[in-house]
Amino acid sequence: MELALESTPWSQESESSTPTQRFRYLPTVRDETPAPADLGPAGVFDSPTGQMAVSESPDVIIRKAAAHIQAMAMLRIDPDADERVDRLVSRRLQGAPTRPLKRKV
Amino acid sequence: MLYPYIERWPPVYDAEDLADSIRDLVESGRLEQRFYRSQARLPQGVCQGDIIELVGGVPLIAEDGEPAVHDDVRYWMVIGNTCDIARSLETVPWSQLVPLVEVGSDRDLTPHELSDLRGYRYSRRFYLPPWSAEVKGLHHVADFLRPVAIHKTALNDVAEVRAGLEIYSWLLLHSCLVRFLARDDGRFS
Fold first, then answer.
1. Nearest to B103 among A38, A69, A89 (CB)
2. Other beta carbons within 10 Å of B178
3. Neighboring chain A residues of B9 at a CB cutoff of 8 Å
4. Which structural domain range is residue B65 located in?
5. Which of A10, A46, A90, B123 sits a CA distance of 20 to 30 A from A75?
């Protein structure tokens, strides 16, 4: 993914105790659908050194997070839990009405 | 062209931080405090993961092959992509919902059942803790097995947004949705 910084940050936070500024920026060139639309990438500007670091695109971060989640087996499926939750939901849906859709003639 | 931004979540700095936060969310026992944004902080417009109120039923093809409406549904979760919601009606007129099923209250669910629900180790549903005083003590699951298409005009003009996810619970939802559609269920292992 190609990123270009906008010249004016659209959001800026100053931390009074340190000269570091965090800001968010808009990528102006994209080659894929951004997801989600309201996650902005972040940058950090360190005033004393003049160094600026920008984060990866949220799209990339989210994909990495998903990979971490998978790697940590955080969302491993337990077939027994699957069965128990299926039963719980089926119990609740027992007797739920099914009505035919009226068709226009 | 720059797409319009809606201020909803803080910036994302680091993938490991996000993954840790999701694990904390699931394991901390504080799921219910960190799951939803407060109503006051919800921006206008609908996003993926929002809980909406829209009285209706689930349109489906019934056992006899005829179109029918199943169940009485009051609350739904939006699973349609936020980007598609933001696109013009001419380009993308539809989004998707799944119905919420009330699975029980604090009083009639056993600790074991609650623990199952909060563990997210099942594939066809997504657990939702109570999101407001209206559903205090009531536990729901979003039923991925019964997706429904909704015209975006109805989503914006008729449905009422009742709750929105925090970033970590949205990532959890996203992971569960992907897992539901692309899981290996172990049949061939």
1. A89
2. 14
3. 38-39
4. 42-182
5. A90
User: Letter for the amino acid at B171?
Assistant: L
Res. B74 pLDDT band, cuts 50 70 90: very high
- B-chain residues near A78 (CB < 8 A): 119, 121-122
Distance CA A61, CA A45 (A): 20
What pLDDT was estimated at residue B172? Answer: 82
* B70-105 per-residue burial string, b: 16 or more CB within 10 A, e: under 16: bbebebbbbbbbbebbbeeeeeeeebbbbbbbebbe
Q: What is the pLDDT of residue B6?
A: 43
Render pLDDT for A20-54 as a digit per residue (tens, 0 to 9): 676 666 665 555 555 455 566 667 766 667 777 77
Q: Kindly provide the ipTM of the predicted complex, given to two decimals.
A: 0.80
Helical pair B15-27 and A58-71, crossing angle rounded to 10 deg: 50
Contacts of A98 in chain B (CB under 8 A): 62, 68-71
Interface contact flag, B175 A96, Cβ < 8 Å: no
Which token pair is B16? Answer: 């490991």
